[in-house]
Amino acid sequence: xxxxxxxxxxxxxxxxxxxxxxxxxxxxxxxxxxxxxxxxxxxxxxxxxxxxxxxxxxxxxxxxxxxxxxxxxxxxxxxxxxxxxxxxxxxxxxxxxxxxxxxxxxxxxxxxxxxxxxxxxxxxxxxxxxxxxxxxxxxxxxxxxxxxxxxxxxxxxxxxxxxxxxxxxxxxxxxxxxxxxxxxxxxxxxxxxxxxxxx
Length: 199
Known about the structure:
By secondary structure, the protein is mainly beta. The chain has one helix at 133-139, and strands at residues 38-43, 53-61, 66-74, 80-83, 111-115, 123-130, 146-155, 164-165, 178-182, 187-188, 192-194. The strands form two sheets. Strands 3, 5, 6, 8, 9 and 10 form a six-stranded antiparallel sheet that branches. Strand 9 and strand 10 (187-188) form a beta hairpin. The longest helix is centred in the last third of the chain and has 7 residues, at 133-139.
């Protein structure tokens, strides 16, 4: 008998499938919800050239039984010049910086302002409280949401910079450069501080 030669098996290579490109969908950023109670500073513009004017708006929201506040705002005085938007004049050591406010404006309760700016260091430090706090409490209409005021900044040179709430030695243990007081004169802590975008 003649033995038939055995066929040597050949390796079968399966064709490699060309991967089908799939479209990558970038996740959409969910808008960040603001906390319930906060103090916020917002800038009307953050991309600037020399000579531009930036308006910083400072507001409070849902600050239960707010009776007073003190704020420290820091900026670079070589890049920005703080000015009073009502007069157009540069802010000085004793200039009230925030104009057009709705908080702490009721003359029935004797609003008392205090100012301790240090413009050479780029610090605006100011606050307000009601003198007749018991009358304010008895009226039962606390100012919890509203505008503290608007502050102007002239751009002296185009450079990356920032305007921020920031603590100073004049405000030890502040919450990011803020003190908030209730209508008994006690400090409030249960609120957020929302900083503006960098410039």
